[in-house]
Amino acid sequence: MRPQPPVVRSAAGRPAAATQASRGSGLDSEAVRLALVRRLVAQGLQHPAVERAMATVERHRFVDTGLASQAYEDISLPIGLGQTISQPTMVARMLELLCAGRTQPLGRVLEIGTGCGYQAALLSLLCREVYSIERLRGLHERARENLRELRLPNLHLILGDGMLGYPAGAPYAGIVAAAAGPELPSVWLEQLEIGGRLVAPTELSPGQQHLVLIERTAQGWKRQVLDAVRFVPLKSGVG
Ligand code: SAH
């Protein structure tokens, strides 16, 4: 299936993919990005909006120039300060879990762990309002820099401890975490609206992480333990 035209627009109103393809790396990013999306679809990605978002956001602008040529391989990459950007398959899987069953954009969504800002940019295409919180100042600032040119007015970057959630934006239609703790902080569950979904890696036993999906219903919280995964640790405090 051919992805639809990119939806991110530059300030001048031209498609971002076309105006930024040559930025720095000399990479013909659109062709390699669409090839990556075709591989994701072949591996099972089904949600059209997630597919479109992955075809639109340029992953190479979120990693160091030296790594740009690897940006469209299905691998995780270092983003500095000991952190990593997840492999595209994992990002697509989490976004698909978050958006499952929805044909309209999600409402307000909270991302814990902005990192380089890549997944936050994808979320901004899938949700009406995105709050993305990062505890490391260096990465918070790098994400701001990476995202500046994209001008995504519905994306709010916050420096803070995501273990506390972000009460100012609550309740959320979705919460997605990019770092794994031994259990899900109870404030995340409380900040989820009824009908909302939370997707987070969790270390259910030492060294064993799994994706956990929580769906909040009027009766309570329904929990499913899904794929075995490997994420950086969720830590408290701001550094
Ligand atoms: N979604 C990111 C992935 C970043 S890796 C991207 O697209 O790049 C996970 C991030 O979670 C790291 O940057 C790490 O610093 C951050 N993190 C870990 N614990 C956190 C916490 N309590 N609050 C906010 N961010 C946290």
TrEMBL record:
Primary localization: cytoplasm
EC number: 2.1.1.77
GO molecular function, one term: protein-L-isoaspartate (D-aspartate) O-methyltransferase activity
Annotated localization: Cytoplasm
A biological-process GO annotation: methylation
Annotated NCBIfam families: pimt, PRK00312.1
Family to which this protein belongs: Belongs to the methyltransferase superfamily. L-isoaspartyl/D-aspartyl protein methyltransferase family.
Protein known as: Protein-L-isoaspartate O-methyltransferase
Organism: Serpentinimonas raichei
